[in-house]
Amino acid sequence: MTPDYALIARQLEALLDTRDWLTNSAQTCAFLMEELADLNWAGFYLQRQPGLLTLGPFQGRPACNPIPFDKGVCGAAARTRTTQRIDDVHAIPDHIACDVASNAELVIPVLSGDYLWGVLDLDSPLPRRFSVDDQAGIERLVALFVSRTDLEL
Question: What letters, b where the CB count within 10 A reaches 16 and e where it falls short, cover 78-98?
């Protein structure tokens, strides 16, 4: 059953009560882990230098760091600036396996105008966890995050 993303957006909007990127990204990760079923990791990777993602706030097991744009699902999302919805991460030749329990992944680029601030990465132990509806709903949540946050590092 698809979550009620309109309700989740209203709840997230109430949590994002500051413009601070660190507070808002930490709140967003914690909130998504609580509200979305079957996640084992939710976090941000930040672009602090060209071509490289650095670990930001997250919920879950320790993560891989850094991630170059030419590696893995997060790198592909950053490089192409398009959402990556992967049903089976083990079928991706350059997948970076930070947690062997992860089977599906959804990575959404976080853009402020033309500037790539980073990516939101969601992992699940369930294959095919993320539907088209989940992708659209979480992309709306990322847009809300961007509208409520000063994206300066």
Answer: bbeeebbbbeebeeeeebeeb
